[in-house]
Structures are given as C-alpha cells and as structure tokens.
Design brief:
Blueprint lengths: L7 E5 L4 H12 L3 E5 L13 H29 L11 H4 L6 H19 L6
Parallel strand pairs: 1-2
Helix pairs in contact: 2-4
Length: 124
C-alpha cells in the first residue's frame, strides 16, 4: 500500500462501488480526504429542463474545471502534484437510458482531462 501522510485528496462524486471505495483507500493510506457528491436525476431528452441540464453541467463539468484550475495553481507553486480524474465508462460508450446529460458531462470531463494532461501538465 502507498503512503499519503499529510497529502490532500479531493473526491468529487463517488457514491457507489469504485467511487466510494477510492476515498476510503486514500484515507486509509493517510490522506486528508474531502468528498463532494450530488446525485443526478435520470431523465430522457424529453424530460430534461434547462435547469437540470445546467445543474449537471455545473456539478460534473464546471466543478472539474474549477478544481483543476486551483489545483494546477498550487502544483505550479510547489513544482509538484498529481491530478487523478476517474470518470465513467459512459464517457466512452454513452448512456443507454435516461442519462443523456450525465453522459455529456462525463465525455466533457474526459476531453478536458486529456487536454489538461497534454498541455498544462508539462508546465508544472
């Protein structure tokens, strides 16, 4: 097992299976874990309102941007750090039923993370 004494881990999401297990393992390894989670409501394209679309974009995509931006600023000052983003298989394959907004945000996170790694990560 790895040691994370005095490290900080921010976990956004993760209410089930892997998502709930990772913060637990990070804490057991000594990290100070901060968890932020909000469950999405399953809706098909005909049920999604602008409000529910906006809520999910803010929770799953905008928050990813804000967290990464602040973390990158800290990492740049420290000349060290890691960002690990774990998303959903839905980012790769799409959702089957009633989660078009969720799938859209997960795909957006995947593109954001890949671009961040290819561009900004080299400047730390």
């Amino acid at each position: 097992m790895f040691k994370l004494k005095d490290r900080v881990a921010l976990a956004t999401g993760g209410s089930r299976s892997l998502g709930s297990g990772i913060p637990r393992c990070l804490a057991e390894a000594g990290a100070h874990v901060v968890i932020n989670y909000r469950k999405s409501k399953p809706e098909d394209i005909f049920e999604i309102t602008l409000e529910s679309w906006d809520i999910l974009i803010r929770n799953n995509l905008f928050s990813t941007f804000l967290c990464a931006k602040k973390t990158m600023e800290i990492m740049k000052m420290q000349k060290y750090g890691r960002i690990i983003q774990i998303s959903s298989m839905i980012a790769h394959q799409g959702a089957l039923y009633r989660h078009v907004h969720y799938a859209s945000t997960k795909s957006g996170r995947l593109g954001f993370t890949r671009t961040l790694a290819r561009t900004a990560g080299r400047r730390i």
